[in-house]
């Protein structure tokens, strides 16, 4: 068997973490963004507001409501890796301007929505629903280190406890999306205070953002403790033992959960310049056998989180 | 969890081993005790060359007799139409290969295993020769009593020699003995071209096996004993072209063999393979510009398998289907290894395997060129269609339709420019390669063009790997003889399914981390 010290590979992630901790029946809760949103709202966890949902082609006429809307985001309910997301930032006459600066007519938006309905962006090409939601305006602290789009914070939560995190910064190459494999920059975070350490771009370690050439390290994520607190509450809602939560920080509303991911990627290790397995092993040691995580309160989880940090850094 | 998986895998391997062992040692009772002595694997390879006309080849296939068992037959017909007909009277089993239009060369391979036993026959003493044999013996013996073109048993010279050799009241056993002695002592052996009939052999007293056997048969028929030519091959290690002919006389309710050339009297050695009965030609062909064949024989290496439960006992046309099916799990092994251990991206699990099966029909080179062409075409079409803004499903349909148009155009062009072999491509590879384009387009939409090209490259590479493993003779033979090996494949996949090591490609992906680790340690 080939191993690398501390590194979590795809095989081990799938077998030991995803297959063993994420029960298949809970997948739809995170794979469908509308379901996620509904659950989050029920539990009072902030997320971008849902404007309306389009399930069928004949509902496309609902889009005439667009003329009253200045900024919004069109999303597929089951899209993955940021595909099919169309952020509209401005209304100019009868057209809408996207985050990339293109001008779209109503027909263009309709075409995009019908593509979503046909399953163009969904996992496995199945039919999908589209929805329009609140357009997040990113906190100004991220402006120097992101190119278009909204940077997000990926937090991995193992058995209810936050273990590792990174800030994902859109680039020109990623087309404003925050997915690392599409060319976004990942910046590891010090879990104690939410301050960025260096970055990674296309599997290469970097110090400066490739588009803005600003230093990535040393930025403090606002509302860091709120993010950790929300993260510690997610297990009770979704019952998934290994998930990635994507937070954005709105300049008006503060931290919002954009979406959850039951198969979070492994590049977070590159961004943090360390393997995941020491953290995972410490958590397993501290928690003992399953299913103790069901009985923990969010406060207790955060306490375990701090103990884990102490142990990792010792 | 791991323990349970290891146990299940172990159990499956043990079951495989047990099934194989039991089938070798307790299954085929009829075959096993002798398989070391006279078990042969025979390949018959025929090279055909045609110049664009109808072609037909017939070859008499061996059949089961009391002393020979044929099994593990395999045909590689290279796309020619193949069928088998049984002859009513002789019970000969004749294989026909046909092609409506044969341009260029084809190589037909026919392979089988044979277990041949030696046999000693007793000629009952005092058996009276019937005065009117045609009435005495049933009607189906007529051809073996009446003269034929090269066996002129009613020729006056034959009768003259016969009456010199045997006396009227000699019993069957004595008459045959005298005829046998006459031919073996008077006729000299000399290898010759073409066939020599009975009377010429008698006139010249020099002949090869054919002439000698014909003389023996002619004399026997003249003496009122049903007699016929038997053709076959003497099994020996190596490659050869020479076939052999001997005779059989019907004495006391059974056919008894006589080989005048090698002086086997009422005896068949274990290395005689019988192919046909009657004075026929082993191979006939029509419409070929050149034809060549040879036998390649060797002692069998695969132990014979329990016959009723062997896949070889199935009708031949089903065997090829099962053959292809068996190769699928072999392909999954390669794909599993490539994805889990190495980490090569492919279009799903099935695509590389199907592509490998397509390679089997159209060769790797043609296959890879087709995939490249089709992927490039699809990419071009997609870029074009993006402009029109069309929904995904119709868009894919348009891409596939375009590919079909191009394939048909290529075939038509090939046909009209005289490259008719282009028409021989069967539906299967075309469908597979066309389907690749759908996977390509979907990945391109989902993960971008780079990922799609990576996937296409990965799929092709893994397909080539799977193809070579599938073509590996050892794998093919053993899997077909012992399909229980599939259980072991499940066992391997179980183990692969619990493999938690780092994928090889991940080592490259996380290469940068090494620098950091290095710094931390120093």
From TrEMBL, chain A:
Keywords, comma-separated and alphabetical: ATP-binding, Ligase, Nucleotide-binding
The ATP-grasp domain, residue ranges: 37-287
Annotated Gene Ontology cellular component terms: cytoplasm
Protein species of origin: Candidatus Danuiimicrobium aquiferis
InterPro entries recorded: ATP-grasp, RimK-rel_E_lig, RimK-rel_E_lig_ATP-grasp
Gene Ontology BP terms: SOS response
Name the record gives this protein: Alpha-L-glutamate ligase-like protein
Source taxon at top rank: Bacteria
Keyword Nucleus annotated: no
A GO molecular-function annotation: metal ion binding
PROSITE patterns for the chain: ATP_GRASP
UniProtKB/TrEMBL annotation, chain B:
Keywords: Membrane, Transmembrane, Transmembrane helix
Pfam families xrefs: 7TM_transglut, Transglut_core, Transglut_i_TM
Keyword Transmembrane helix: yes
Highest taxon in the source lineage: Bacteria
InterPro entries referenced in this protein's UniProt entry, alphabetically: 7TM_transglut, Papain-like_cys_pep_sf, Transglut_i_TM, Transglutaminase-like
UniProt-listed Gene3D superfamilies: 3.10.620.30
SMART domains for this protein: TGc (SM00460)
Keyword Transmembrane tagged: yes
Residue ranges constituting the Transglutaminase-like domain according to the UniProt record: 201-262
Coiled-coil regions listed in the entry: none
Transmembrane residue ranges: 6-26, 322-342, 362-380, 392-416, 422-442, 451-469, 481-499
The protein's name in its UniProt record: Transglutaminase-like domain-containing protein
Species of the source: Candidatus Danuiimicrobium aquiferis
